[in-house]
C-alpha cells in the first residue's frame, strides 16, 4: 500500500513542504510514497499585503503547480488530528466529513488573529487577517465617501502598533485621501499599550517609524488599550473616546487551533516545539512548519517568527525531512541565522534592517523598492514547471 505524506495547509509553509517532499522523492525515484495537501482552497494567499487595496488579487493559484509536481490536492478544512491513529479529519467544501491517513504529517496550518471579546466587535471591528476580512474593510472604506463629512468618517483607529498595525496605519492616509479628497481632514490613530512608538520592534528601526509617522500625520496613543467599540468610535481603558467609523484590530496572532490537538509542548502563541529536524517533540510521525512551529533559528537563542521569511525555509526542511525519514536517509537540520525585516511605511517609503537587533540598511524609497520586489516577486511560488519547482524547493537554498 502506498505510503502518504500529508501536508495540512496551503500557505507558504505548506506549499514549500509539499514541493520539498516531492523533490526528495523524485531524486530517489520513489513512486511508492505520495504527497497530499489538505487545504480550504487551492491557492496561496499573500497575507503580508492584505492591508493594501485590490486585496482580491493577492493570491497565487496552486492547482497547476501541484499537478505539475505530482502532489494530490484535497480541498477541505482540517478539524481534528488523531496522532495515535495517524489520521486527520476534515470537512470538504460542501461540508461533508472525511478523513485522511498519513505515515508522516507536516502541520502547516498557519496562524489566526485573535479577535477580542469586545462589545460591538462583530459589527464594528475590522481586520486584515484573511482576504474576506480585508475585502470587507476595503468595501467599508469605499463607502465612506457616501457619508456626510464628519470627524468620525475621516478617522481610522488602528489597534496595535506591531508590524501589521504599522503597515496598515501608514497605508491609510493615502487611501483615505484618494477616497475622500485631498482637502479632507484625515486622522489616523494607532492605539498601542507600549510606552513608546513601536516598543516591541526595538531601537533600530524606531527612528524611521517615528519620522514616517510625523510626515504622514499618524498619531500614536501610547500606553492605552481599546476596551469597547461601536458604530461611532472606540473607548480606551482610561475612558478616552475617539470618534471613528473605521476601527482596525491587528493585535494578537496565535497558531492554528490544530496544534492544541497534539500532545506536545507549545509556547505562549500556541506554536509546537520542534527539534532541528522540525519534528514535533514527542511525536514520531509529526513535523511542523511555518506559524505552527517554534524552531530555533541559530545557536544563540533566537527562534522563528510568524513570517513568510521563516515559513518558506521551515517548509523546505519539514517536507524534505518527512520524506527522508520514510526512505531512510539522513535528514537536514534547519538553521536560519540571517534575519531581515522590511517594514512598509506607506507613502513615506519603507525601512529595511538586518539582524535580530534590526540594524538599518535602507530607508525611504530604496527600501520601498525592495519591499515591492519582496511582495510582488520573491514570495510567490514558482511556476508550474516540474523541474523548476522542485529545484526551488531545495532546503539548502538560503532564505533572506
UniProtKB/TrEMBL annotation:
Keywords in alphabetical order: FAD, Flavoprotein, Oxidoreductase
Domain FAD/NAD(P)-binding: 4-313
Residue runs in coiled coils: none
Single GO term (MF): NAD(P)H dehydrogenase (quinone) activity
Domain of life: Bacteria
UniProt cofactor(s): FAD
One GO process term, biological-process aspect: aerobic electron transport chain
InterPro entries given in the database record: FAD/NAD-bd_sf (IPR036188), FAD/NAD-binding_dom (IPR023753), NADH-Q_oxidoreductase (IPR051169)
UniProt KW Zinc keyword: no
Family label: Belongs to the NADH dehydrogenase family.
PANTHER family: 64 KDA MITOCHONDRIAL NADH DEHYDROGENASE (EUROFUNG), APOPTOSIS-INDUCING FACTOR 1
Protein name: NADH dehydrogenase
Organism of provenance: Ectopseudomonas toyotomiensis
Organism lineage string: Bacteria, Pseudomonadati, Pseudomonadota, Gammaproteobacteria, Pseudomonadales
Amino acid at each position: 500500500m502506498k505510503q502518504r505524506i500529508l501536508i495540512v495547509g496551503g500557505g507558504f509553509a505548506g506549499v514549500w513542504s509539499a514541493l520539498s517532499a516531492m523533490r526528495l522523492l523524485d531524486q530517489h525515484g520513489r513512486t511508492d510514497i505520495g504527497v497530499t495537501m489538505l487545504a480550504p482552497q487551492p491557492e496561496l494567499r499573500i497575507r503580508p499585503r492584505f492591508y493594501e487595496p485590490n486585496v482580491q488579487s493577492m493570491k497565487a493559484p496552486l492547482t497547476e503547480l501541484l499537478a505539475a509536481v505530482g502532489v494530490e490536492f484535497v480541498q477541505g478544512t482540517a478539524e481534528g488530528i488523531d496522532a495515535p491513529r495517524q489520521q486527520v479529519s476534515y470537512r470538504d467544501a460542501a461540508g461533508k466529513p472525511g478523513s485522511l491517513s498519513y505515515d508522516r504529517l507536516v502541520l502547516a496550518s498557519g496562524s489566526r488573529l485573535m479577535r477580542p471579546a469586545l462589545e460591538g466587535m462583530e459589527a464594528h471591528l475590522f481586520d486584515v487577517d484573511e482576504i474576506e476580512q480585508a475585502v470587507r474593510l476595503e468595501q467599508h472604506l469605499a463607502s465612506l465617501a457616501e457619508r456626510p463629512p464628519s470627524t468620525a468618517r475621516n478617522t481610522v483607529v488602528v489597534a496595535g502598533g506591531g508590524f501589521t498595525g504599522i503597515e496598515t496605519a501608514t497605508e491609510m492616509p493615502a487611501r483615505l485621501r484618494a477616497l475622500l479628497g485631498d482637502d479632507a481632514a484625515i486622522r489616523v490613530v494607532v492605539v498601542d499599550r507600549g510606552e513608546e512608538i513601536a516598543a516591541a520592534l526595538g531601537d533600530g528601526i524606531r527612528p524611521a517609524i517615528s519620522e514616517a509617522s510625523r510626515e504622514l500625520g499618524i498619531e500614536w496613543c501610547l500606553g492605552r488599550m481599546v476596551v469597547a467599540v461601536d458604530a461611532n468610535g472606540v473607548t480606551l481603558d482610561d475612558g478616552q473616546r475617539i470618534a471613528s467609523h473605521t476601527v482596525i484590530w491587528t493585535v494578537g496572532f496565535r497558531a492554528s487551533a490544530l496544534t492544541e490537538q497534539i500532545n506536545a509542548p507549545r509556547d505562549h502563541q500556541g506554536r509546537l516545539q520542534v527539534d532541528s529536524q522540525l519534528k514535533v517533540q514527542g511525536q514520531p510521525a509529526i513535523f511542523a512548519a511555518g506559524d505552527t512551529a517554534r524552531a530555533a533559528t541559530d545557536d544563540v537563542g533566537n527562534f522563528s517568527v510568524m513570517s513568510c521569511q521563516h515559513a518558506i525555509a521551515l517548509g523546505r526542511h519539514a517536507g524534505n525531512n518527512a520524506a527522508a525519514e520514510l526512505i531512510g536517509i539522513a535528514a537536514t537540520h534547519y538553521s536560519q541565522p540571517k534575519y531581515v525585516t522590511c517594514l512598509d511605511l506607506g507613502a513615506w517609503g519603507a525601512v529595511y534592517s538586518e539582524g535580530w537587533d534590526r540594524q538599518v540598511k535602507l530607508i525611504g524609497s530604496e527600501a520601498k523598492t525592495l519591499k515591492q520586489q519582496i511582495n510582488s516577486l520573491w514570495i510567490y511560488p514558482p511556476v508550474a514547471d516540474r523541474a523548476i519547482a522542485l529545484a526551488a524547493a531545495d532546503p539548502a537554498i538560503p532564505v533572506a
